[in-house]
Amino acid sequence: DQQVKQNSPSLSVQEGRISILNCDYTNSMFDYFLWYKKYPAEGPTFLISISSIKDKNEDGRFTVFLNKSAKHLSLHIVPSQPGDSAVYFCAASAGTSGTYKYIFGTGTRLKVLA
Amino acid sequence: DAGVIQSPRHEVTEMGQEVTLRCKPISGHDYLFWYRQTMMRGLELLIYFNNNVPIDDSGMPEDRFSAKMPNASFSTLKIQPSEPRDSAVYFCASSYLGYGYTFGSGTRLTVV
User: Fold this and answer.
1) Chain B nearest CA to A18, separation (Å)
2) Which chain B residues contact residue A41 at CB under 8 A?
3) Measuring CA to CA, which of A109, B34, B49, B77 is 20 to 30 A from B59?
């Protein structure tokens, strides 16, 4: 059973516009959330994270929003650039319960069109 | 630091053969994770170690899969016997104190 779900396998966005990637989770014990970015033939790399005590975290063009009541988080990329084209994975962990394993979603392939 | 190093990058093997994937974590990292990437399940955690001790192997799909970490700088994931459905990209990741994973470049396994 997928505890972290990314229901959109792919997304295409025009360069300069906003990209919004969505993620839903089912486990209420999750308290730390991350987004990873993956280019072909490379390992995933960390992009941005958010703790459950916050509802927003921003890093340059990337902002992650967390809605705990809806068990939903989203990644906003503004403005989108062709170099952002990659697969984005959402991940969650229940760190305060002493486990450090990240549970990943299935990924969303973002294509930014020039 | 060279990052997390995985070998081989690609492995093609025949069904029934033994396959061994290798990982060298970042020096000083005390957690090591093995993941498998498939289209259907995304990045799926197989097993993780803390200070060379297996902590959670609940994601290991079958007894055909085994993982070891004989020391802080080396881990292996073995599949014996291999089957076509094991074909996937296998990633190793390491972290310090459980946070901020660094992934290797992965091993693409094809079982024919």
Assistant:
1) 24
2) 105-106
3) A109
